[in-house]
Amino acid sequence: MKKRAWLPRATAGGVVLALGLSLAACGGSSSGSGSGRIHVLVYGDATNKVEKQIVATFNKTSKVKAVLDTIPGADYQQKLQGIISTKQAPDIFYNWGAGSIQPFVKAGLLMPLDSFIAKDPGLKSNFLPSVFNTAVVDGKPYGIPMRGTQPVLLFNNKKVLQDAGISEPTTWDDLLADVKKLKAEGKTPIALGGGDQWPTQMWFEYVYDRIAGPGLFEKALTGDKSAWDSPDSRKALSMLKQLVDAGAFGNNYDSVKFTDGGSPALLATGKAAFELMGSWEYSTEQDANADFTKSDLGYGSFPSMAGGKGNAADVVGNTNNYYSVLKKTKYPDAVMQFLKLQYSDEFVKAHLAIGNLPTTTNTPKFLDTASNPAYLKYQFNLVKQAPSFQLSWDQAYPPSQTTAIHTAVQEFFDGKINADGFIKAMQGLSAS
Amino acid sequence: MTTTSPAPAAAQDGQARRPARRAARRSGTAVTRPGFAWAVPATLFFALFAILPLVLVAVLSFTDWDGLDAPAFAGLDNWRALLHDHTMIQSLWLSVLITVLGVAVQTPLSILLGVWAAGKQRNRAVLSAVFFVPLLLSATAVSVLWRAMLDPNFGVPAQARWLFGNGNLLGMQSGAIGVLVFVGAWQYTPFHTLIYQGATRAIPEVLYQAAALDGAGTVRQFFHITLPQLRNTMVTSMILMVVGGLTTFDTVLILTQGGPGTDTTISAYYMYQQAFKNFDYGGGSAIALVLVLVATVISLVVVRVSGYDKMRSSSEGL
């Protein structure tokens, strides 16, 4: 009796176990690029509409078919790094250029695009140089711009400015005076989504650029740690400190986020007068507060700073997103044909239609077809005329340094670390 | 009468039960316990999904790996770095603090609610069902919800300035920890309430009848019968709270991201940050192992101190 009961149950257990194991094994068996296909991996969001259209256009004429894969959400970089050295890796993938691809270049995974450009010089000459150069690593091009540019602008609520009797600040002193006036009226002068940390970083990027010029950060990025301890660096930090201490951001900015709509709402409801934000602020406000966007959303460039070495026409932000190519791709010719579509007229029109601003040289031709031509023209000229377009610090450095940068900028604004603490934190970053 | 009758009954009962139990045990070993073979499937699963990953993590903690190249042996580098990493030491304290605060807040609440829910009052079932709802929501949804509710300019703090001041709850350490403990309690108190409700219902009615005859009121009954009878349940519930507290992750990820600065970077979040945001899988593995060690020590202490390992009968006085 004992034996009879034991055997079937043990068998059942064994079967269950075997099933479980084979299920677990299934996860690894789907293969990456099959025959005659190139996989294109992009960040999953509303812009995928355009990418789908471009892939469809490509597939109409190409024998090798392109397949669009998307990774939704903010974990793109993590997931990409998880698959890029495996069989599941795509042939072409979306990235932010510079630091975001540097580890892959170092690991020898990416294909330099020199040979493509030699065959079709248009792959370089059809893009704005300041944008194209962001994806140049160690002197070699690794990315083709594939979405819109996103400079950081100083947005304002026109009605609040009018009521307070002030105009858009053109100098740092104007801004400080405005802050004082707005505070007296019980407003939060500047909305800041400090809880997200990267909006705080934007203030550092601009003030450092205006005070020291783009050279300081470039020097620091090459690994020269003395840049952070320079007099210019200390001056920039003291200016920032002055702004925070003047109450420009109120006293609860670290509980506010941009990503959950908190800081844009402050601007739209008139509780705050300014917000420093990427150009996507416009579409964010349009989604949440269409009336405000139409009538009262103002925008301008960051004020100049007297005695600073930086050009007041410099901009900071996300230069663009890029397509990079893996060395292991089996169909380099098809990949090249696909990349050439990224400066086609169809590409430009499709992006403009959804409010993105491409950085190809043929973009101005179509600006009037966009839904908000004035705003896009302003940005295009700003970017085109900018002597320097500084990529966001957290994207210029490799992704592994992002947390450290974000923590440092937040703690400096909170007063938890002083200038020495901030300098030490930035000197602790590793540039490669 | 009331004092004498239970004692002999217990004695008789005990005498009658003991030989029978011994007999059952003797025959039980022969009939219903087939030995190790029964444990094989579970052991295999455990080995595959718990022991093996743990060993791999231990190995990884001695390497330098960014997920791109092959892991390179790094000796004790990760461990040495941890020793000098003040964020790591702080994260352990924060984990323990959040756990202790969680236990301190949730235990009294869930005992009171559980005992209340075990009764026969009107509307009890309806209210109990309502109290249970937070547990059915995902921790992520709960965190997103509270993040929005606690917005300093448009949420609850904006309407209650007398209580929240400038509303900078998530922008300072004490506020952020308070929010984490509060949201954790809001979500998990119902679960522990359920445990206490069941345990309270299992307390023999005769104890209360006897106490009532002796003239003990509701409060006295609660402290002298209900609470002592819930002792083992309390240990179980607290161990679950400690485990939950030490592995808190989703609420931190969504509510504070370890901030402001590193003020709420608890060990579990720090591990995630190192491994998956900073791509330092070796360092992350070392933190994971430390967390395993600390949790093991704490649970051993809890088991020892509480007498959970002996698990004496809770039918005292019967």
UniProtKB/TrEMBL annotation, chain A:
Signal in keyword set: yes
InterPro entries recorded: Bact_solute-bd_prot1, SBP
Gene3D superfamilies hit by this protein: Periplasmic binding protein-like II
Residues making up the signal peptide according to the UniProt record: 1-24
Domain of life from the UniProt record: Bacteria
Xref: Pfam families: SBP_bac_1
The protein's name: Xylobiose transport system substrate-binding protein
Keywords per UniProt: Signal
Keyword check for Signal: yes
Automatic annotation (TrEMBL), chain B:
GO biological process, one term: transmembrane transport
The protein's name in its UniProt record: Xylobiose ABC transporter membrane protein
Subcellular location(s) of the protein: Cell membrane
Membrane topology: Multi-pass membrane protein
Biased composition annotated in UniProt, kind: Low complexity: 1-14
Keyword vocabulary terms for this entry: Cell membrane, Membrane, Transmembrane, Transmembrane helix, Transport
CC per GO annotation: plasma membrane
Positions in coiled-coil regions: none
InterPro entries assigned to the protein according to its UniProt record, in alphabetical order: ABC_transporter_permease, MetI-like, MetI-like_sf
Membrane spanning residue stretches: 35-62, 92-118, 125-149, 169-188, 234-255, 281-303
Membership in a protein family: Belongs to the binding-protein-dependent transport system permease family.
Region listing for Disordered, in residue ranges: 1-27
